[in-house]
Specification:
By secondary structure, the protein is α/β, with parallel strands linked by helices. Helices cover 54% and strands 13% of the residues. The longest helix has 23 residues. The two termini are 34 Å apart. Belongs to the pyrroline-5-carboxylate reductase family. It comes from Catellatospora coxensis. It catalyses: L-proline + NAD(+) = (S)-1-pyrroline-5-carboxylate + NADH + 2 H(+); L-proline + NADP(+) = (S)-1-pyrroline-5-carboxylate + NADPH + 2 H(+). It is found in: Cytoplasm.
């Protein structure tokens, strides 16, 4: 196994830490960094790992996972870039930032892999997209998959598709929570207690997701199986179409994709 350094163990960084520990990765081969000593002590107590300063963490690691906010990545790489030798693998979890952003700070030949995961990693149900940057080989992608597969599913995509991935699955959990929130409010409007409405829609969402994943059926076919002629479901779908819900989703994901590109432009 490789020694992994998580640089910037905030929310996403801690997701990776938690997944590695739960998967049985030796804690003496996991190190992290944190801005505040209070946070560092919390991570030590929670996971039994070493929390070091940035330079010490890089020196101790075979794989350096950068998990800071995109707006903080430039200052971090100006500090750390010269300290990362070409033989170490750099993995970026920074939303919106292309691998080219990191290579300009790194020694020639340093492999960089770009990763976009999502918050269901907290329950081992993440969708993680992995892309090779300059100098990254299939071997390096395999290392990234080894690190992230304990968090859920992984998929390899060309880096040119990562902004779309960010819009779809990176931000995707928020869309589903928004939908559950709206449907819960609708249940209350129809006379159901809040907790009953919540339980009904959450279990329906879970069951529907499992059917989509396991049946192999197209979502249209699954929807049609619930939609009888002149029934309640088609009446509801007519209202969704009348209110432009499908078009709203298309526009929303385009906006998220465009914002990911803006983040990259602002950081470069």
């Amino acid at each position: 196994m490789y020694t992994v350094a998580v640089i910037g163990a905030g929310k996403i960084g801690e997701v990776l830490l938690s997944g590695l520990v739960k998967a049985g990765w030796p804690v003496d081969q996991i190190v992290a960094t944190a801005r505040r000593e209070e946070r560092a002590e919390q991570l030590r107590n929670r996971y039994g790992i070493r929390v070091l300063d940035n330079a010490e963490a890089v020196a101790a690691a075979d794989v350096v996972a950068i998990a800071v906010k995109p707006q903080d990545a430039g200052a971090l790489m100006a500090e750390l870039g010269p300290q990362i030798p070409a033989g170490k693998l750099v993995i970026s979890l920074c939303a919106g930032l292309p691998t080219g952003f990191f290579t300009k700070w790194l020694a020639e030949g340093t492999p960089v892999v770009r990763v976009m995961t999502n918050t269901p990693a907290l329950v081992d149900e993440a969708m993680t997209a992995i892309s090779a940057g300059p100098h990254a080989t299939a071997h390096h992608l395999g290392i990234a998959e080894e690190l992230f597969s304990p968090l859920g599913r992984t998929i390899r995509v060309p880096e040119s598709q990562q902004d779309a991935v960010t819009a779809l699955s990176g931000s995707g959990p928020a869309y589903f929570y928004f939908l559950v929130e709206a449907m819960t409010d609708a249940g209350i409007l129809l006379g159901l207690p809040r907790q009953v409405a919540h339980d009904l829609i959450v279990q329906t969402a879970i069951g529907s997701a499992i059917m989509l994943r396991d049946s192999g059926e197209h979502p249209v076919k699954l929807r049609e199986a619930v939609t009888s002629p002149a029934g309640t479901t088609i009446s509801a779908i007519r209202e969704l179409e009348n209110h432009g819900v499908r078009a709203a989703f298309l526009a929303a994901l385009e906006a998220a994709r465009d914002r990911a590109k803006e983040i990259a432009d602002q950081a470069s």
